[in-house]
Specification:
The protein is mainly α. The chain has two domains: about 190 residues, Rhomboid-like fold (Up-down Bundle), CATH 1.20.1540.10; about 25 residues. It has ten helices and four strands. Helix 5 runs parallel beside helix 7, helix 7 runs antiparallel to helix 8 and helix 7 runs parallel beside helix 9.
Length: about 230
């Protein structure tokens, strides 16, 4: 009988460094009360912070802080499980640039969602960047079977699982997570790794679609009355 043996990903240098930085910042914000107060007033993203107080840096700085240790630990674990393979394939510069852009995408999504739903709650946590990294991992394994613990699935299914979990947690209401930051980071990550952020990619796709439609429209179909068949 075949047995499945789970292989844990390596703890890469970049992920180690990020974990140390995030833990240090969280610990300092807990232990140093003035710092914690400053973080809550000037480092967390919300529509009030960005659009009224013009603290645009919060679109990025929100990702550096966490509500509690379990919040931080969960983000690091998910980043390690799915980000190690991505980190190994990329250069350090690309890894950090990608993380920053996904965090930014999550921050922008938070502000836009709060404008739509008239919410003002500040958001914090590295989850937006983490979901972008999960999206990159899923894209690299889009049609390849991977194992989420003991459950085999393709990369594209993995993304749906994460989205479903987010929606479930929000509906149940057990944890005050920001689904906007998660989906914003995920969408940003997908756009980057797929190349669909480039206008040229959209232009080529539109040209292919137009050419295909043109061929179908002007295709000549002839009918043979004797055999009752259509010949292209």
């Amino acid at each position: 009988m075949a047995q499945y043996r789970m292989q844990w990903p390596p703890f890469t240098t970049n992920i180690k460094g990020l974990a140390i930085v995030l833990f240090t910042l969280w610990f300092a914000s807990v232990m140093v009360e003035p710092l914690g107060d400053f973080v809550h007033r000037h480092m967390l993203v919300s529509q009030t912070a960005v659009l009224q107080d013009f603290e645009v840096w919060t679109l990025l700085t929100y990702a550096l802080w966490h509500a509690d240790f379990m919040h931080l630990l969960f983000n690091i674990i998910v980043l390690w499980l799915f980000g190690a393979e991505v980190d190994q394939r990329w250069s350090s510069a690309k890894w950090w640039r990608f993380n920053a852009l996904c965090a930014l995408g999550g921050g922008v999504a938070v502000v836009l969602s709060q404008l739509v739903f008239q919410s003002f709650y500040p958001t914090l946590g590295y989850s937006g960047a983490v979901m972008g990294v999960v999206a990159a991992f899923a894209w690299q394994n889009w049609n390849r079977t991977i194992h989420l613990f003991f459950f085999p699935m393709k990369g594209k299914v993995l993304l749906l699982v994460f989205i479903a979990l987010d929606i479930f947690i929000v509906v149940v209401g057990r944890e005050p997570i920001s689904i906007a930051a998660h989906l914003g980071g995920m969408a940003t990550g997908l756009l980057i790794v797929s190349g669909w952020w480039r206008p040229r990619r959209w232009k080529l796709a539109w040209q292919r679609r137009k050419y295909k439609k043109h061929r179908e429209q002007f295709q000549i179909v002839q009918r043979d009355p004797e055999s009752d068949q259509y010949l292209n």
